[in-house]
Structures are given as C-alpha cells and as structure tokens.
C-alpha cells in the first residue's frame, strides 16, 4: 500500500547518545531512511560537499530562509546558524521515503508544531529508568546528588510527555531494536494507511 | 519500567486467517502473552479441562454472567454461548502480562467500548491490499466479481477504521513480524509508560 513516508524525529536530553544511536541505525542498516540535509552559515570543512553534508549559505540567505518560513527549525551554535529546510523533507515524505531527524529537544518541539504527523521518539537516559532502584538503595549517592538527579528527572519526564515513544538507551542495540519496531508498527498504523485504502475504492 | 500489560485484540473479516496467525505466534514464540480462557455453555469434549480450555458453565450461569457484566463480549454459535470473562483479563493486565484475544469483528467492537486502551489489530485480506492492481488489470475477473469485491472492500475498510493497526495477512510470517513489532512499539509508547515514570519521581 503506497503511502506517505514517516518523519522520524529522534531526540532526548543532551548527552543521552542521540548521535551514537543514529550512527548505529545507519551502520546496522536497521531500516531504510533518507537524511535531511541541514542548512548552515558555517564555512565548509575540507571534503564537505554543498547539498550533501550541508547547504552552505551566507548569513543573509539564512535569515531570508527564516523569514520566508523555509526552515522547520533552526538554532545558533558557536556563532553559526544551523537549520532544517522544510521543502526537501516534504518532497521525500511525499515520495514515500522515511526521513530521520536527529535533533535537540527544542528543535523537536518546533518540528512537532509544524509536522504533528511525525513520529517523535524520546531517548531516555538509562539512569532515569533506574532512578527508582537508586533511590531505594541510597547510600551510594549523596543527598545532593540524588536531589539534583530528581529535579533533572522531573524535567526529563516533562519533556517526554510531548513525544510518542520513550526508548531507554540502556544499550545501543536495544535502543535500535525498539526504534526499528516503532518504524515497522507505524507503517501499519490505521491512521497512516486508511486514506490510501479509501482512495483505492473511491477511485473506481 | 513496570507497567500494565497490553490487551492485544487480533481481529478481522471472517476467513482472513486470524486463527492461523495466532497459532503461528504461539509456535514461533514471537512474543510472550497470556491466553484469555473463554466461558462456554458447550459440553466439554474428551480431554478438555475446565478453567484451562474453557470455563464450562450452564446456560443459567452464563446468563447470570451476562447480566452481572462479567463478560467483555459474548456471542452464540451453533446453539451454544461463548464469552470472554473480564476479571481474569484485568488481573493478568494488572500483573504486567500481555493478553491476546483472537476474536471476530463484532466481539472486537464490544471490547473496544469497554477497554479502549487495548491494542486493536485488524488483519487485512491480501486481496484488499492488491485490489487496486486487480482493478487496473481487469479482464481476469468478471464485472460482477469485481463489483462484489469492491462492495466487500468498502465494508472491510469501514471496519478497519475502528482499529489501531492494519496488518496485511499476505504471508503468515509477515503478519507475525508486524504484530511482534506492534507489541514492542506499544510497550515503549509514552502514553503507556509515562505514568510509571511520573509515579517514580512523585513518590520521593
């Protein structure tokens, strides 16, 4: 059944290992997907190809892209702009290709607002998952460490609530396996396939 | 993260192969689940064990069970009543066990009304999936055959709209693989896990 591709948004708190999990998906060929090429005002490094590694643009061009609504999300990092162009993502999705965005939580929130049909996956730190155990077996951590972790945990859980799936990054292999299952399941979700079935019988 | 088990409801049009797919899940040990034991007024056959194969009860007891709301759904077949008792299903789910119900579409509809948190999987006949192709390449089927299949297809798509997932039963192995992925994905869906995370930080 031909249908639109999935926009897969992989996010989570900083340091949770988003990049490592994405690399493992690529290396193990867990499932096929297309890359979204980012736009940046950073200068190309030796060997980087415009349109492949990044769309390299001037600050003026980047600001124009922002103003014209050409970017799903953007941010500034070490003096340079980075953003995700909307048009190529929409094109790949309409061709039935899945697109994977690995992105920070602020970026994911902006993507959610514009593309609510995306599949939003929150990578969860394993120590959040194990927090209960750690709290029960106090003594290994100081009270200050525990209180700080609790505060952070409440923050992480609040972030998680905006996502569709919470995948614990206990091992990269487990995380990849869950993400693979999510992709397979979403591809057979009724909300994603029923329109193409309906179209099929209406066209007669 | 301990959480409630999943109620998996496997249904679909008659003849689609629900029983075969369920047997394949059992035989390949695709994922662990508990059986729901049905209640029936049918007489036990040699070797059948009360409480294991069925709960064998009198017609009066069955009618009492209906009136007391003890059954999630029930129907009559060749003069006997068959029904799904609610209490054991609820108990298994609260113990974190997944429960699989293989059930006809009318039964599934009743389960949906009472247990909307269930995972409702619609097995789709492969010829529905291939209908478009068949319509394009008319000539192999008569116009009457095509019109009947179209009418049936519209009915099947209408049924499908009440479900969470539509799994094409093209091969039993493919169907089982998709159902396995659905189970894995649902177990990490935020709506199912976030309460236990929240409870964890609130309890401190």
TrEMBL record, chains A, B:
GO terms for cellular component: cytosol. Its EC number is 2.7.4.8. Pfam families: Guanylate_kin. Signal peptide: none annotated. The keyword Repressor does not apply. InterPro entries: GK/Ca_channel_bsu, Guanylate_kin-like_dom, Guanylate_kinase, Guanylate_kinase_CS, P-loop_NTPase. It is found in: Cytoplasm. It catalyses: GMP + ATP = GDP + ADP. Keywords: ATP-binding, Cytoplasm, Kinase, Nucleotide-binding, Transferase. Transmembrane segments: none annotated. The keyword Transcription does not apply. ATP binds at residues 12-19. Its main location: cytoplasm. Residues 5-184 form the Guanylate kinase-like domain. It is an enzyme of class 2 (transferase). HAMAP family: Guanylate_kinase. Belongs to the guanylate kinase family. This is Guanylate kinase. It comes from Lactobacillus jensenii.
